[in-house]
C-alpha cells in the first residue's frame, strides 16, 4: 500500500476513535518515514489512550518540538501541558513541573492571547486545591472558566467546571459542587470533550463522590462512562486512584470478580514507576476483597503490602482479626483508630461501622450504642444515602444486641431498603441475616427462614465464605461449642473463672485488661441468667466447658 494511503488510513482510524489501530498504523509509518507534528500528536495521544504512557510522553515530546519548529506556539504549549499532566498522574512530579514550566515560558515569549494560558492556569489551580486552599483555587478556576468560554474550548470548559465543583465541595457547598461535577461529566458522555480530558473528569468525579459518600452518583456516571468507552477501541481512560475507586464501586454492586481484576490491574499499573503512594490503596482494596471471600492468609499479605506502601491498614485488618476470632486484637486496633480520628469527622465516618461491629463482639454495648448514635448524626449531616444505610445497619445491630428486637427489626428493614436502592447486594444480605435473627426472636420462624435463605443465595453467588458460615447457623441458635449464646472469647473467660482464677489471672492469661474481663463477665451473667461466679461455674461444669 502506498504510504500516503496508509497515512490517510491511520488518520481515519484516529478520527473514528479506533485507538489501537491508529497507534499501530502510525507507529508502523513512523518507523519508515518522519511524521509531521500533527501526526506525532495523534501518535502520542493514541498511545496514552490505550495505556502506553511512556510511548505517549515520547510521542508528545516529539510533537512539541515539531510544533515549535513550525512556529505553532499554541499547539506546542498544549503538548507540553499534557506531557506534564501525564507525568504528574504517574507520580513523576519534578518532570511534570518542568514541562509545565517550559509551557509557561513559551507563552510568556509569545505576545498573542491564547486559550492555552487557561490550561496552565488550570494546572496551578489544581495545585492550589491540593495544597488545601479551596477558596483561592475557586477563584483561579473561575478565571479558567472565563478563558474557556471566551475561546469556546470544550476540554477547558469541562475541566474548569470540574475544578469549580471540587473547590465548592471542599468548601462545604456540596449541592452546588456536585451540580458542577454533573455538568462536566455530561460533556464527557455527550462526546463534547476529548477522551484524555474525559478520563480526568471521570476520575476526579469518582474521587470526590467517594469523599462525600455519594456512591450512587458515582455508580450512575460509571455506568454512563462505560457505555461511552464501549464505543472506542481499547480505550483505557482511567489512571491512578481512580482505578482503585472503580474496584470499590464494583465491589459494592456485587461484581466481586471484576472488582478483584480491577484491583490487580491497579496494583500492576501503580507499581511502575515505584513509589506511587496510591499503590498502598490498591493493595488495601485487594485485601478487603480477599477478606470478604475468606482468603485470610492472602488478605493478611495484601494488608501488609498496603502498610509497606504507607497506606493505613485499619479498619480492614481489625475486621480480619474479628473474622479470625481474635476479638481482643481487633478491639485494640479499632479503638486506637477511632481515638486518633477524634477531630476528623470524615475519617470517623469511614471507621465507626467497623468499630460498632467489633466492640459488640467484645461485649461493649455502651460503646457500640454511643458510636451508632454518632454515626446517625454524621449520616444526617452528610445527607448521603450510602452513609445513611451504614448508620441504619449499625443502629439495628446495636438495638438487636440490646434486646430491643422490634425496634431493631424496623431499623434493619429501613437499612435493607436503603441498600437495595443503592444496589449493594452484599450489604443488603448482611442486614437480612440480622433481620432473620430478629424474626426468630419474635417467634416468626417462617419469616426468619425466608430472610436467611435470601441472604445465603447472595453469599453463595458472591463467594462470601465467612458470611456463608454465619448463615449456616439458624438464627437465634448459638454455634456449636458455645452454649448459652456465649461468644468464643466469653467461653475462654468462663473456663478460666470456673477454675477459680481471679480477674487479674484471667486478664494475664488471655492478654487482655481487667476491665475487659469484667465486661465479659457481665455479659456472661446476663446471657446465662445468673448473678454470681459460683452459678456461672456450675453452668460451665454442667455443659462440660471445663
From TrEMBL:
Residues 479-544 form the HTH luxR-type domain. Keywords: DNA-binding. PROSITE patterns: HTH_LUXR_1 (PS00622), HTH_LUXR_2 (PS50043). The keyword Flavoprotein does not apply. It holds the Pfam family GerE. The keyword DNA-binding applies. InterPro entries: Sig_transdc_resp-reg_C-effctor, TPR-like_helical_dom_sf, Tscrpt_reg_LuxR_C, WalR-like, WH-like_DNA-bd_sf. It comes from the Bacteria. This is LuxR C-terminal-related transcriptional regulator. It comes from Promicromonospora aerolata. The lineage of its organism: Bacteria, Bacillati, Actinomycetota, Actinomycetes, Micrococcales.
Amino acid at each position: 500500500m502506498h504510504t500516503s494511503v496508509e497515512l490517510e488510513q491511520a488518520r481515519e482510524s484516529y478520527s473514528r476513535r479506533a485507538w489501537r489501530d491508529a497507534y499501530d498504523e502510525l507507529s508502523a509509518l513512523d518507523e519508515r518515514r518522519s511524521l509531521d507534528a500533527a501526526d506525532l500528536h495523534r501518535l502520542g495521544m493514541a498511545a496514552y489512550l490505550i495505556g502506553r504512557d511512556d510511548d505517549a510522553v515520547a510521542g508528545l515530546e516529539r510533537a512539541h518540538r515539531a510544533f515549535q519548529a513550525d512556529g505553532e506556539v499554541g499547539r506546542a504549549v498544549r503538548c507540553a501541558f499534557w506531557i506534564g499532566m501525564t507525568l504528574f498522574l504517574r507520580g513523576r512530579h519534578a518532570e511534570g513541573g518542568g514541562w509545565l514550566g517550559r509551557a509557561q515560558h513559551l507563552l510568556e515569549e509569545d505576545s498573542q492571547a491564547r486559550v492555552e494560558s487557561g490550561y496552565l492556569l488550570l494546572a496551578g489551580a489544581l495545585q492550589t486545591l491540593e495544597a488545601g486552599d479551596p477558596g483561592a483555587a475557586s477563584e483561579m478556576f473561575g478565571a479558567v472558566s472565563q478563558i474557556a468560554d471566551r475561546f469556546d474550548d470544550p476540554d477547558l470548559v469541562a475541566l474548569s467546571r470540574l475544578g469549580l465543583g471540587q473547590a465548592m465541595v471542599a468548601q462545604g457547598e456540596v449541592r452546588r459542587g456536585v451540580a458542577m461535577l454533573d455538568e462536566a461529566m455530561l460533556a464527557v458522555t455527550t462526546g463534547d470533550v476529548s477522551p484524555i480530558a474525559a478520563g480526568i473528569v471521570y476520575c476526579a468525579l469518582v474521587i470526590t463522590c467517594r469523599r462525600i459518600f455519594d456512591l450512587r452518583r458515582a455508580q450512575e456516571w460509571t455506568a454512563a462512562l462505560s457505555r461511552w468507552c464501549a464505543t472506542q477501541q481499547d480505550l483505557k481512560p482511567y489512571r491512578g486512584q481512580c482505578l482503585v475507586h472503580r474496584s470499590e464501586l464494583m465491589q459494592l454492586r456485587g461484581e466481586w470478580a471484576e472488582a478483584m481484576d480491577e484491583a490487580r490491574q491497579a496494583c500492576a499499573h501503580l507499581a511502575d514507576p515505584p513509589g506511587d503512594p496510591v499503590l498502598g490503596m490498591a493493595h488495601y482494596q485487594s485485601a478487603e476483597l480477599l477478606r470478604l471471600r475468606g482468603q485470610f492468609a492472602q488478605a493478611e499479605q495484601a494488608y501488609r503490602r498496603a502498610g509497606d506502601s504507607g497506606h493505613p491498614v485499619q479498619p480492614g485488618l481489625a475486621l480480619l482479626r474479628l473474622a479470625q476470632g481474635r476479638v481482643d486484637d481487633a478491639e485494640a486496633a479499632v479503638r486506637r483508630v477511632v481515638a486518633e480520628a477524634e477531630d476528623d469527622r470524615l475519617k470517623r465516618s469511614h471507621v465507626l461501622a467497623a468499630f460498632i461491629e467489633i466492640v459488640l463482639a467484645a461485649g461493649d454495648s455502651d460503646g457500640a450504642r454511643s458510636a451508632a448514635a454518632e454515626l446517625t448524626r454524621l449520616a444526617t449531616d452528610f445527607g448521603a444515602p450510602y452513609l445513611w444505610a451504614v448508620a441504619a445497619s449499625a443502629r439495628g445491630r446495636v438495638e438487636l444486641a440490646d434486646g430491643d428486637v422490634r425496634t431493631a427489626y424496623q431499623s434493619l428493614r429501613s437499612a435493607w431498603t436503603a441498600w437495595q436502592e443503592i444496589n449493594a447486594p452484599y450489604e443488603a444480605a448482611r442486614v437480612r441475616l440480622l433481620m432473620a435473627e430478629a424474626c426468630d426472636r419474635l417467634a416468626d420462624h417462617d419469616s426468619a427462614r425466608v430472610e436467611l435463605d435470601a441472604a445465603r443465595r447472595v453469599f453463595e453467588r458472591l463467594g462470601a465464605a465467612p458470611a456463608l458460615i454465619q448463615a449456616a447457623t439458624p438464627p437465634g441458635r448459638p454455634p456449636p461449642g458455645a452454649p448459652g449464646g456465649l461468644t468464643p472469647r466469653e467461653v475462654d473467660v468462663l473456663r478460666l473463672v470456673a477454675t477459680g482464677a481471679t480477674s487479674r489471672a484471667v486478664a494475664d492469661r488471655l492478654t487482655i485488661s481487667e476491665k475487659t474481663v469484667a465486661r465479659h463477665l457481665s455479659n456472661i451473667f446476663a446471657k446465662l441468667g445468673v448473678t454470681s461466679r459460683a452459678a456461672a461455674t456450675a453452668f460451665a461444669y454442667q455443659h462440660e466447658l471445663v
